[in-house]
Amino acid sequence: MDAPAPPRPASAGEPLTIRPPPGEWPALLAAAWGADPAAIARRERFRSQLGLPDGPIIMSGHQPEFWHPGILAKYLAADAAAARLGARAAWLVVDQGRPVSVEVRYPARADGRLVARSLVLTRDVHPPLPADAAAPFVREGLARILGAMDERRAEPDLARRTAGALGALIAPLVRAPAPTLFATELSRTDLFSDLARRMASDPEACARAYNEAAAAHPGAGLRALIADEVQDRWELPLWRLAPGAPRERVYAEMLPDTPPDQLAPRALFTTALLRLAGCVLFIHGTGGGGADEVHEGYDAAMEDWLGRWLGIPPASLAPRAVVTATRTLPLEAGPTVTPSEAATAAWRAHSARHDPGLLGDGPAAARKRGLVAAIAASPDRRARESLYREMHAGLEAYRAARGRDLGSLAESAAEASARLADTAILTDRTWPFPLYPPGAIARLRDEIEAEFARGARS
Q: At 216, is the secondary structure helix, strand, or coil?
């Protein structure tokens, strides 16, 4: 790949996060690669069983879908770091969900406004290219997605078809596409079998340790495993993927009757396997690696679980990093509006019909306040009713006299509401990366490359 052009700095609203800084990554890899002989043997066997390359591996992954630039940033960071640090990148496809459709969201224009639309792709359905894309580059991106998917019709399932299409779409951005590993393949390794046997031999210990770790890390948002001591029923962090059936959660009593090739690890077990033996550094987004001290990622709970269950300390696992980015589409639209501004416009349009003071009509506002006070002070019900009718008659006269002004406020509120919908589209960071102008995605790659170049010099 040619040397990257000098990156254009991201704006304050389009940050790039690499944590820890790239300058600290060499030390992380060196510590993980220099493991003890037993760990080296486990790692070599695990990788050979999965067809992964020899040497240090920097790994990341995601579900088989057309990711937004924040997910793509993980892939680009793995490529950049591997080149700088003498390692190889690898990508995990989290395919335990066995998707039957893939949604491709895109911004469209309808009646002059921006709206969100979706194409739904299945293994057998190839929708036409939509004509309502919000910009030519969005339409071109959709065409690239559909073309890449169409070229991979021979793949056995939608997850592999989508992964292949992603690889083709990413290829121009990286030195070489990363070897792809599917999470459903992990069950064919000895390490998976060994740990599954540990689960089966004492499911209570596994489930209790998992639940204690989940409770100790509430920011990870993990659901506790079902642990029923009375019924002696223990849920395990596994999926059963029987042919032609929906995936199902696995309980300890199901293991003797479940063929090993129908088992797959759930999220925490997946990263436990990979950080035990699959890589020397695992790159997460904020979901796995954490956004801050409050919203910690699920991998912190995984580390806690392995420690409680098997006595494996975090230092025995490959270290983790966090990479993400925010990028928005450069769509043309009118002025943006914040939710607060839209709410204020709606409040003003409604309240001005009942409060003449909002339109500067001091006499009418004073008359209403006087009548409200008189209603509250009057002890006679009929008198109160008469005052109430007088107050509303005055408001109707005010509305008739100021109808144009009130109409303008209503129009402004409607416009603000519409602009708010536009703003949601304009500030959305989750559009599939192929929908962005190629130059914008190339700049993201170049920013990541520049960060690792600076890290190598520091």
A: helix
Cα-based angle 43, 47, 48 (whole degrees, multiple of 5): 115
Q: What is the CA radius of gyration of the chain?
A: 29
- Distance between CA atoms of 428 and 423, rounded to whole angstroms? 8
Q: Token digits for 261?
A: 């090739």
Local structure of residue 171 (DSSP, 8 states): G
The residues near 160 (Cβ < 8 Å, ≥ 6 apart) are 64, 93, 95, 152, 182
Angle CA 51–181–256, to nearest 5? 90
Tell me how far apart the terminal alpha carbons of the chain are, to the nearest angstrom.
24
Do residues 287 and 323 lie in contact, with contact meaning Cβ atoms separated by under 8 Å? no
58: left (phi over 0), alpha (psi -120 to 50) or beta: beta
- Structural tokens at position 15: 């940050």
Cα distances from 247 to residues 94, 102, 225, in angstroms, run 14, 17, 16
Where the chain has pLDDT below 50, the residues are 1-12
Torsion on CA atoms 308, 28, 184, 100, rounded to nearest 10: 110
> Tell me, what's the pLDDT at 458?
67
Q: Alpha-carbon distance 87 to 429, whole Å?
A: 30
* C-alpha 339, offset from chain centre: 22
User: Which residue do the tokens 């910009």 mark?
Assistant: 135
Q: Which of 199, 200, 151, 144 is nearest to 172 (CA)?
A: 144
Could you report the per-residue pLDDT of 324-354, keeping only the tens digit for each? 999 999 998 667 778 888 789 889 989 989 9
Angle at the Cα of 6 (from 428 to 433), degrees rounded to 5?
Answer: 25
